[in-house]
Write a structure and sequence with these properties.
With 435 residues, the protein is α/β, with parallel strands linked by helices. The chain has 2 domains: 16-165 and 320-383, Periplasmic binding protein-like II (D-Maltodextrin-Binding Protein, domain 2); 168-318 and 392-434, D-Maltodextrin-Binding Protein, domain 2 (3-Layer(aba) Sandwich), CATH 3.40.190. It contains 16 helices and 17 strands. It has helices at 68-85, 97-106, 121-126, 137-140, 145-150, 183-195, 213-221, 246-260, 273-278, 292-297, 333-342, 347-357, 364-371, 375-383, 400-411, 417-434, and strands at 16-17, 62-66, 89-93, 113-117, 152-153, 156-157, 159-165, 168-172, 203-204, 228-230, 236-241, 284-287, 302-305, 309-310, 313-314, 318-326, 388-389. The strands form 5 sheets. Strands 1, 2, 3, 4, 7, 16 and 17 form a 7-stranded mixed beta sheet that branches. 51% of the residues are buried. This is ABC transporter substrate-binding protein. GO terms for molecular function: carbohydrate transmembrane transporter activity; maltose binding. Residues 1-23 form the signal peptide.
Length: 435
């Protein structure tokens, strides 16, 4: 789909990080001053690469699943919580948290808490895999309103958010010192740079042969299109698919124009997009915070700005939110809820997780702290202003493939926008009805 925090994660091993350092192999003792039930724990030796779920130790009171990148940071606070409560806590790396959680929970061997994206929520609720939590109003007020909204399904809160993410325009300031206000400005600048021999192209954006609906959406949204219509209360309506309404078709027509001009191409995907921008030969990259570390390592001088207008319409990205969920089959739901409600809202935890992925914290106090020293944080925040949370309804699973492929086919010039997006709408509706 796109390089968000909790897509498929390549890991070198599925090691149980039972209160020890991520990737460590020697036994460690945890806080011997804690109650005797807070036992000495060990870390399993790294295993061969696998997609299998971690194996739960039946003696552990609280198990948290996350990806490899965030495990060590979360383990720090799991240590504290385990010592405070006098219980055994384990942080485990799952190669595919979403898929592994579903299967393990059905088998009664899943974790108590998982870390993942908010758009998993509808499917998890539909499968009775996660439980709502009671978050006091005063605690809700400490987070950005958008992040709290993303944790809700049918009016209930199902997790505690820790980060938000969205795409914008990352530009190579050596080639494009000024923030573009319009897409047409980017195209003109790219043509100027190519003519001067300073650039190989204009805009890097993930498309691929099968497309990428996450990056297609802003073009549709620019003209009042999108994926689902919204109900009066703001919820997405799975019965009203709008990928082929007048606004969406106008956005699709812009994709066709960009493909015809070779501004966007299906030859660029998640395997080469970063490397192309980091070559220093492209002025603009439509991407998110996940691309920044590689750009820094490539010594690209960059700046971040909001998505521009295109043909007079204001592009707007989806807003993604990362959160901690509580399993409906938690071994001890009280401990799970206590951890997510008392520890995830800690400013220190949210700052530590920011330092890994550089996604703006959802907790206002943490956001204020990091934006004071990291200008990128405010830039991403500005780029996400007014963005709607990505739909977290189960019907969204029916969208990604058809809409992504429609965008790719239009960019490649294979089919006229109206015809192709009409077909995508029919496929999406059919998929939802199969449900």
């Amino acid at each position: 789909m796109h390089k968000r925090a909790f897509g498929a994660v390549a890991v070198s091993g599925v090691a149980a990080l039972a209160l020890s350092a991520c990737g460590g192999s020697s036994p460690t003792a945890t806080n011997t001053a804690a109650a005797t039930s807070a036992a000495t724990t060990t870390t399993a030796a790294p295993a061969a690469t696998t997609t299998a779920a971690p194996v739960r130790d039946a003696s552990v009171d609280l198990v948290i699943w996350t990806d490899n990148d965030r495990a060590a940071a979360i383990k720090k606070y799991a240590d504290q919580f385990g010592a405070e409560q006098g219980i055994k806590v384990a942080v485990q790396v799952a190669p595919d948290v979403r898929a592994n959680f579903k299967d393990a929970t059905n088998a009664g061997k899943g974790p108590d808490v998982i870390v993942g994206a908010h758009d998993w929520l509808g499917e998890l609720v539909q499968n009775n895999a996660v439980s709502p939590i009671q978050m006091p109003a005063d605690l809700q007020s400490q987070f950005s309103p958008e992040s709290i909204a993303a944790t809700k399904f049918n009016g209930q809160i199902y997790g505690v958010p820790y980060a938000v993410e969205n795409i914008g325009v990352v530009r190579n300031t050596a080639l494009a010192p000024d923030a573009p206000k319009t897409y047409e400005e980017m195209i003109a600048k790219g043509a100027e740079l190519k003519k001067a021999g300073k650039a190989d192209g204009t805009v890097i954006q993930e498309v691929g042969k099968t497309g990428n609906a996450y990056y297609t959406y802003p073009y549709l949204k620019a003209f009042g299109g999108g994926i689902f219509a919204q109900k009066p209360n703001g919820d997405y309506d799975p019965n009203k698919v709008i990928v082929n309404n007048a606004g969406s078709i106008k956005g699709a027509q812009q994709l066709a124009i960009l493909g015809n001009k070779n501004i966007l191409t299906t030859n660029v995907d998640g395997t080469n997009a970063d490397a192309l921008f980091d070559s220093g030969k492209y002025p603009y990259y439509i991407t998110g915070p996940w691309a920044i570390d590689k750009a820094k390592k490539a010594n690209i001088k960059y700046a971040i700005s909001p998505l521009p207008t295109i043909a007079g319409g204001q592009m707007s990205p989806f807003l993604g939110v990362q959160m901690f969920y509580v399993s409906s089959k938690a071994k001890n739901k009280a401990f799970a809820e206590e951890f997510v409600l008392k520890y995830v809202p800690k400013k220190e935890l949210q700052v530590d997780l920011f330092n890994i992925g550089h996604r703006p914290p959802a907790l206002t106090a943490a956001y204020q702290q990091v934006q004071a020293t990291d200008p990128d944080v405010k830039s991403w925040f500005e780029a996400g202003k007014g963005a709607l949370p990505m739909p977290n309804i189960p019907a969204m699973n029916s969208v990604w493939g058809p809409l992504g492929q429609a965008g790719a086919d239009v960019i490649a010039g294979k089919t006229a926008p109206q015809t192709r997006f009409d077909a995508a709408a029919k496929e999406i509706i059919a998929n939802i009805n199969k449900g």
